[in-house]
Amino acid sequence: MATANKNLSHYDENNIPSAEEMTFGIVVSEWNHEITHKLYEGCLETLLKHGTKEEDVHTAQVPGSFELPVGGKILASRHRLDAVICIGCVIKGETSHNEYINQSVAMGLTNLSIASGIPFVFGVLTPNTEEQALDRAGGKHGNKGVEAAVTAIRMAAMKKGLTKSKQRIGFGK
Ligand code: DLZ
User: What is the DSSP letter of 55?
Assistant: First the structure.
């Protein structure tokens, strides 16, 4: 489903495990920082809202989205993390640079997750325009940082074995 039909900040709060005992890394790209800072704020706010202690959130800044995988790997080598949230915004330009960056980041984070067993969450916006980015950074389509935080909590719970074993598989709103 395209995000145009979905609000990235909407989720079922009653169905999220407590994040009280969880430790997270957040890596934020400086490129398009007016967008990535909003994503970071939405992400951090959501982790704290679900019980994560401020001292259990470790952050790092990298120059651009291309550096997110290595930045996340360095962060995970320094702290015992239950999940790493990687935040960036790659806006389509006149050339195809965005495709190379996006594919590289997606592949890098997938490889890191599988190799380490630590979820590396893709909190990267890949819009065609700055307006589309703003719509997804606290605008009319919500905040991708919130979505990334919820994903990180759910995957960290899965890793820690905190999900209910007999939980039914279902699809909500
Ligand atoms: C070079 C570049 C360009 C043109 N655009 C973006 C962008 O929209 N978003 C982003 O996060 N990073 C961009 N970068 C920087 C690259 O991610 C990377 O930092 C540089 O190519 C150096 O490796």
Answer: G
CA dihedral in degrees (74, 147, 37, 28; nearest 10)?
10
Contact 143, 9 (CB under 8 A): yes
- Residue 131 pLDDT greater than 60, yes or no: yes
Which residues are registered as beta bridge partners of 139?
142
* Beta-carbon contacts of residue 73 (< 8 Å; ≥ 6 apart): 112
Look up tokens 């398009």; give the residue.
Answer: 32
**pLDDT mean over 91-116:** 97
Give tens-digit pLDDT for 12-61: 998 899 999 999 999 999 999 999 999 999 999 999 999 999 999 999 99
Please identify, by atom number, the ligand 1 atom nearest to the C-alpha of residue 97. Answer: 4
Q: Do the beta carbons of residue 24 and residue 156 sit within 8 Å?
A: yes
Q: HSE on the CB side for 45, CA within 13 Å?
A: 13
Per-residue CA distances from 161 to 82, 145, 151 (Å)? 12, 24, 15
Closest residue (by CA) to atom 5 of ligand 1? 90
The active-site residue, picked from 37, 79, 97, 141, is 97
User: Which token pair is 2?
Assistant: 């395209």
Of 9-13, 51-55, 139-143, 149-153, give the lowest mean pLDDT range: 9-13
Q: What CATH number does the domain located at 32-160 have?
A: 3.40.50.960
